[in-house]
Every structure is written in C-alpha cells, then in structure tokens.
# Entry
Amino acid sequence: MEEITASEGLTWRVSRTCDGGACVMVARDGEFILFGNTTQPDGPKVSYTRAEVAAFAEGIRRGDFDDLF
# Structure
C-alpha cells in the first residue's frame, strides 16, 4: 500500500497494484472515508460515512457489482 499526503494533511492510501496511473486513493477523516484520484491529489474528493463504505465493500464481497468490472 502506498501512502500519499495531500494538502489536507490526511494520509491517503493507494492499492499496491496501482502502477502510477489514475488510481483511487482513500483516506479517513473522522467518521468519513474520502475518495480521490491519484492524478489529482489536491483535486475534488467524494466522502461517505464509514457505514456506507462498509455496506459497499460487503456488496463487492458478495459479487453485487461483478457486472461492472
């Protein structure tokens, strides 16, 4: 896992399989999980509650989104 520190002072995590291209980066900010793009580390972010991200991750594990990949 690679870590990136953007201007917000948060520690961003990126998958070990990110090859330096456009990858999703994530960080925790209190009760929220923020998502950004490695090509724009200081660009726009999307935030979700930890519960929302947990529900999404469970859906991934169940295969609910397999048709998107």
